[in-house]
Specification:
By secondary structure, this protein is of the alpha+beta class. 31% of the residues lie in helices and 22% in strands. The strands form 4 sheets. Strands 7, 8, 9, 10, 11, 12, 13, 14, 15 and 16 form a 10-stranded antiparallel beta sheet that branches. Strands 3-4-5-6 form a 4-stranded antiparallel beta sheet, with no helix packed on it. Helix 1 packs antiparallel against helix 2. The longest helix is centred in the first third of the chain and has 25 residues, at 53-77. The chain is elongated, with a radius of gyration of 25 Å.
């Protein structure tokens, strides 16, 4: 007997509250279409059962959003009677909530009617609008019941957008979704009435429409201004959803360039196996996120095809498993005209000067250097972090972020301590920006001078012939305690040698080997200790390594080689001439440190 499914009748809260206070893990969702909070409380992976008002409100957010997605699926599958009945039910519920905005939202939020945040209302409205649009392609029968809801949703999106842009926040990611909600609701209402859609002048072309937002929110290097992988994709997904039935040739050429550039960003940071690093405050691993990436890539491939992004969709689908509802495969023909030309694949080195990231790819290693601006409310104190991935293995990933309602773990994952960066005197880096010193076809060099008073750090990353070189030089006005940090996302072995470099082995679907040395004459303590793994599970321990020295100046040098690459590295030595790497075929390579 099929499980009973019903739409919940209560307002949703703030989804970030759906987190275990003891363990920092997102709680198990249960059956989000069942319409009622799990009996006995929401389950934590470590056996907790959590039941309080905030968690119940968060579950309602997840449930309502799952229903909006389910409505889209029902419409695509042609299950018309069920979809129409549920839309009518939501129309009645939304009318009941017309007494005002959510009264329990945090003060900083732009408040919604169905949820704490107008942003969450907008995301839900997009799914509802697209369900109606799809149903109307076959017939308008029964859709009149949804018209009051669609008209209310459009008015709510317009009112919220007016408040936001009146505060000077045209570039906010809220604005992207309010515009997408306005498009979906107004286009859905027009379709239900059997009319041509006339809302482009408000929601796309207008002074505060989607095109104006994208021009304001995206920098010349293609990154959304917050510099976060998640929020970048968040805004791009809203834009692509808003452009349903649009001919790409009808989009202003500068906006096409923005959309193509945003797609290029994701293609550049993604590994060949489809891993998208969680740069600057993104969630690490969760099924709803995999659904979002799958939808985004499916839409992006129809607008600006990119072979480099195809693996992202495949990886998302494999992460979803039974959670994959197949919606992405029902999105064919989203745009009215042919796609733009396919985007070129990224080269060995890509530098994003304004966001402050560099990506280096070679010999089975995918490396990212973070040197840019802090990132506003979504930034971490992680300047000159070096992230290392294989095709599918997160050897040393950006650890991501827990749901925001867990203040303690959120602060932990924003800290310098949590990142493969550097520290001075065991203190936290200041919120600051670094600077690109130079780059070429095989290397990138960046510095930061604002992380600690009187301290300059320079990190140079070089693609060698079958290996990667990392040279981190830290200088102060007097002797300080400098620490270079390894923060694995996988199991790690550390081996000290009687003479020569420290050896590390990083495991996973692919294996990475590391050699670690430092300036001569400066004693360095390589201390290992257990620490939290990536943010999807703070209780999963990983071996952290701190290389610490008392000095006025020191260079920490590391060489990394994937087990699939060759010839094998046999020795690593750092002296006054620079870093020498010896290989099994008898050849050597010299890499200069900073002058």
């Amino acid at each position: 007997m099929a499980a009973l499914r019903r739409i919940p009748r209560e307002r949703g809260g703030w989804w970030h509250a759906y987190v275990c206070p003891a363990h920092g893990t997102e709680l198990d969702h249960g059956d989000l279409l069942a319409g009622s909070f799990p009996d006995g409380g929401a389950r934590c992976a470590y056996g907790c059962r959590v039941d309080d008002e905030a968690v119940r409100g968060a579950w309602l957010v997840l449930s309502h959003q799952a229903w909006a997605r389910h409505l889209r699926v029902l419409a695509h599958r042609g299950e018309r009677a069920e979809a129409v009945a549920r839309l009518a039910e939501y129309a009645g519920l939304y009318a009941e909530l017309a007494t005002g905005r959510h009264g329990e939202a945090q003060n900083w939020m732009l408040r919604g009617r169905l949820f704490h945040q107008a942003l969450t209302d907008a995301i839900w409205a997009v799914g509802v609008g697209h369900a109606v649009i799809t149903l109307a392609e076959d017939s308008t029968d029964g859709l009149a019941a949804a018209l009051p809801l669609l008209d209310d949703l459009e008015r709510a999106a317009l009112d919220a957008r007016d408040v936001l842009t009146g505060q000077g926040h045209l570039a906010s990611n809220y604005t992207a979704w309010l515009n997408a909600a306005g498009v979906a609701a107004s286009r859905g209402a027009a379709a239900a009435r059997g009319q041509e859609w006339e809302g482009a002048k408000v929601w796309l072309d207008g002074e505060h429409g989607l095109y104006a937002h994208l021009r304001a929110a995206v920098a010349d290097d293609g990154w959304e201004w917050e510099g976060s992988t998640y929020y970048h994709g968040f805004v791009l997904r809203a834009a692509l959803l808003a452009l349903r039935s649009t001919d790409p040739a009808a989009v202003p050429s500068d906006v096409v360039d923005v959309l193509a550039g945003m797609t290029d960003v994701l293609a550049a940071v993604a590994t060949p196996g489809g891993v998208l690093p969680a740069l600057h405050d993104g969630p690490y691993l969760r099924h709803p996120l995999a659904l979002e990436w799958l939808e985004l890539v499916s839409l992006a491939q129809q607008l600006v095809p990119s072979s480099a992004l195809a693996a992202v969709a495949g990886r998302a689908r494999s992460e979803l498993g039974a959670h994959d509802d197949g919606l992405d495969r029902a999105l064919a023909g989203w745009f009215a005209g042919p796609p733009l030309p396919e985007r070129p694949a990224p080269g060995p080195v890509t530098v994003f000067g304004e966001a402050g990231y560099a990506v280096l790819r070679g010999a089975g290693i995918h490396a990212l250097l973070d040197f840019g601006p802090h990132g506003g409310s979504h930034g971490h104190r992680d300047k000159l972090s070096l992230y290392l991935y294989g095709d599918t293995t997160p050897w040393q990933p950006d650890p991501g972020q827990v749901p925001y309602a867990h203040a303690e773990f959120r602060d932990l994952y924003a800290s310098t301590e949590a990142h493969p960066a550097f520290r001075v005197d065991r203190g936290e880096q200041a919120e600051c920006a670094g600077r690109l010193l130079g780059s070429d076809g095989s290397s990138v060099t960046a510095e930061v001078t604002g992380a600690y008073e009187g301290v300059r750090a320079v990190r140079r990353i070089v693609l060698g012939d079958g290996f990667l070189v990392d040279l981190l030089t830290v200088t102060a006005e007097d002797s300080r305690r400098f620490t270079a940090q390894l923060r694995p996302g996988v199991a790690l072995d550390v081996q000290l040698q009687a003479g020569g470099p420290v050896r590390t082995t990083w495991y996973g679907e692919e294996t990475l080997h590391g050699w670690h040395t430092h300036s001569a004459g400066v004693p360095v303590r390589p201390v290992t200790r257990p620490g939290p793994g990536p943010a999807d599970d703070p209780q999963r321990p990983r071996t952290r390594v701190d290389f610490t020295a008392e000095a006025q100046r020191i260079t920490f040098a590391s060489v990394y080689q994937a087990s699939s690459a060759g010839p094998a590295v046999t020795d690593v030595r750092l002296d006054d001439d620079g870093l020498t790497v010896a290989l099994a075929d008898g050849s050597t390579a010299l890499f200069r440190t900073e002058d």
